[in-house]
Amino acid sequence: MRKMAFRGTSCIPILILPFLSSLCQSDDQLTHAKPLSASDMLVSKGGDFALGFFSPNSSNTSLYLGIWYNSIPGRTVVWTANRDDPIAATSSPMLAITNNSDLVLSDSQGHTPWVVKSGITGVGVTAVLRSSGNFVLMSPNGTSIWQSFDYPTDTILPGMRIYLSKRAHVVRRLIAWNGPIDPSTGDFSLGLDPKSNLQFVIWQGTMPYCRLNMLNNESVGSGIYQNTIFTEVVTETGDGFYYKFLVYEGSPYSRVMLDYMGVFRFLIWNNRSSWATVTEHPASSCDLYASCGPFGYCDSMGTVATCRCLDGFEPAGVNFSSGCRRTKALKCGKPSHFVPLPRMKAPDKFLHVLNRSFDECTTDCSNNCSCTAYAYTNLSSNGATADQSRCLLWTGELVDTGKYSNYDDNLYLRLANFPVRNNSKLVKIVVPTMACVLILACLFVGIFKYRASKPKKYGIHNGAMLGYLSSSNEIGGEHVDFPFVSFEDISTATDNFSDSKQIGSGGFGKVYKGILQGDNEVAIKRLSKGSGQGIQEFRNEIILIAKLQHKNLVRLLGCCIFGDERLLIYEYLPNKSLDAFLFDDTRQYVLDWPTRFQIIKGVARGLLYLHQDSRLTIIHRDLKPSNILLDSEMTPKISDFGMARIFGGNKQEAKTTRVVGTYGYMSPEYVMGGAFSVKSDTYSFGVLLLEIAWRLWADGKARELVHSSFVEDCSLNEVVRCIQVCLLCVQDRPDDRPLMSSVTFMLENESASLPAPKQPAYLGLQNFESEESRENSMNTVSITAVEGR
Questions:
Q1: Bridge partners of 629?
Q2: Interatomic CA distance for residues 779 and 630, integer angstroms
Q3: Which residues are listed as membrane-spanning (predicted)?
Q4: 131-140, 149-158, 596-605: lowest mean pLDDT where?
Q5: Residues 333, 271 share a domain
Q6: Catalytic residue list
Q7: DSSP, res 38
């Protein structure tokens, strides 16, 4: 049997501060004689949950009646009664059991935003907050009249059974908050697909946002997270499904929730200070509904989920917004065959055919000219008498599918047969073709030998260039020793610079993916003639990267000069640059906090090596997210040294009349006066948080900076420390900024004492004395980093 699949790690922010009162009511029951006022709370037996009035922000102007965890820091709300109709704090809100035995939330103005009718006359009706977090209205004989577990908001607690119906007039869904501190009804909801009882869907408004795994008639799934065993159960009712999850007694707090960004998460309290995300949907941007287009699929088998085309298809455009198209069209009456695709998520818009065997399901699709694919699962178990087969057919485009390691089903895709020629026709074609190839090969060999025997005008020019590049240089006066690769080899590796091999482009030119020396994947940067990067910048980058070897610096594998062509060959890094994650609304969730913190520390170590641990001091001058590349393990590597400068001896600073780099990342003294030093790189390292960090940090609200994509699994102390270090790095005066050695120490040592940063000025007024630069860059904008794809 299949289990509901959850993947990934990410989390939502906890922005609600505790609202506790030493004078509050601490009983677990509400009676007619004992109503609940704004300063009171009901606390469940054992103290795990509390019910009372709360304000999701610090203003305390609007109050909601809700249930939250009582014994952990912060307030994690799991249920809200009046989410769309808050009560003003000044109007004396009260929860009471009335004379009619109804449960009523009201205020002093006579407003009743929430009412539960008991249908019972007389006295004796009570309400109790149980240790499970369930708020129950009880009849005098102890039976349940109403319970909050039947009316969840955005959260499912252990033992809660939520009913999800496919009937149009019974809309029962889990509905997210409207924002991190806004409990009102949000745009995202989770419910059963009204067109099928086989799948849960996360909706954004009325549009599907993400489909969860296919359901069986009854699914039982289990998993283990940090010694916590949890079980999920999905039971069919005919009109829909009941979903619940269970944990063993004594396990840490756990919950399933749909957050305000549309992510369905399973969370466990880590017994420290935050919620850890065990699984989530969607786990990546290509998990979003139909994100890879028709006949495209989300491949989640690698480090980063990627859109690809199904077998027998090719991209229909430059990206996957248009999906994929067949390489050979299907035609009715023409031969076709089915290709099994393993571990595939069933596409949407299927036809469910009952009472079929596998062979019958295959025949149904084969005999239907419009059938494009089918899938089959036998769900039978011992003692089962009803139909347990699941034959799914598709008669149009295949949308919203994917490949996942924890899926077991096959998708059988229909493809057109390629024509098979008989042997006589094959011989007539192959023999003349081979003869032509042999003649052309001999012709090319002759031309090559002839040209090799003649002097080349490029040969003298290239020889001089290579000599210039290999001559003594600033790094210890040694010759540069690294491979020069022939233009022919590079052209072969990139299929003559085919567009299909291109993985990036920018003002510098284009970047291609290629394979050199066997199976070694490389990134080849082909500088355009109009890039503005002259031979000096080209030499600068070669010398620096070739001689400087560090885990957090990109590796240069070789270069090529051929006529006017200048090419650099780097190690291939599949995860692109840091900006591809930070500034993408969907990919940013790939970076959980531990990964982000490791990237921060890795970049700091790379800069420390450039500034202090290499033989000479090197200033990068163009540090920014697009120049930080990420390998398959998300290890950061600083790239693009075309703008870098080398300081020898005791020289600590310099000045140039031509400012290069990227505005917004350059230090004030460099922008205004051309002065640069190691403190310029320090400024660039910290500048990303400047615009949003200063006022919140000064007001003691640095925790509000934590992005919703990683708050649940992060250490807020580490986050606050990073913010303070960044503020120290972007101080106006260079003398006030720390050296990268101090930055690295502060990041890696929790016990280190951090000084308070000064408030940044709009414009620096200091006089920064420096010498004239020995070399001026030809560029006024930065060279874009090589990106892997």
A1: 577, 637
A2: 25
A3: 429-448
A4: 596-605
A5: no
A6: 622
A7: T
Token pair recorded at residue 769:
């004395």
Query: What tens digit of pLDDT does each residue of 429-467 get?
Result: 666 777 777 777 777 766 665 555 443 333 333 444 454
Report the number of distinct structural domains present in the chain: 4
Together in a domain, 618 and 726: yes
Extract the tokens encoding 328. 């050979």
pLDDT at residue 183, rounded to an integer: 96
* Domain end call among 258, 283, 308: 283
pLDDT tens-digit profile of 7-19? 333 333 333 333 3
Do both 711 and 646 map to the same domain? yes
| 301 assigned to some structural domain | yes
- Alpha helices, DSSP H, located in 169-267: none
My answer on whether 174 and 232 are in the same domain is yes
Q: What gap in Å lies between CA 19 and CA 669, rounded to an integer?
A: 47
Q: Which residues pair with 64 in a beta bridge?
A: 54
Q: Is 99 exposed, middle or buried (0-12, 13-18, 19+ CB in 10 A)?
A: exposed
Residue 776 maps to a domain: no
502 and 437 together in one domain: no
CA distance 192 to 163: 10
Task: Characterize the bridge pairing of strands 135-138 and 144-147.
Answer: antiparallel
Cα–chain center distance at 70: 32
* Cα 82 to the center of its chain, rounded Å: 33
**Residue 664, pLDDT score:** 83
Q: For residue 174, what are the domain limits?
A: 29-283
Same structural domain, 235 and 384: no
Residue at token pair 């906890």: 14
Distance CA 387, CA 354 (A): 7
The answer to whether residue 357 is domain-embedded is yes
Mean pLDDT over 397-410 rounds to: 88
Q: What is the pLDDT of residues 491-519, one digit of tens each?
A: 888 888 888 888 877 667 788 898 887 67
Exposed e or buried b for every residue in 545-582, given b needs 16+ CB within 10 A?
bbbbebebbbbbbbbbbbeeebbbbbbbbbbbbbebbb
Give the tens place of pLDDT for each residue, 363-392: 999 999 999 999 998 876 544 445 578 899
**Is 16 contained in some domain?**
no
CA 131, distance to chain mean position in Å, is 36
Structure tokens at 462: 């290239």
Annotated ligand binding at 525? The verdict is yes
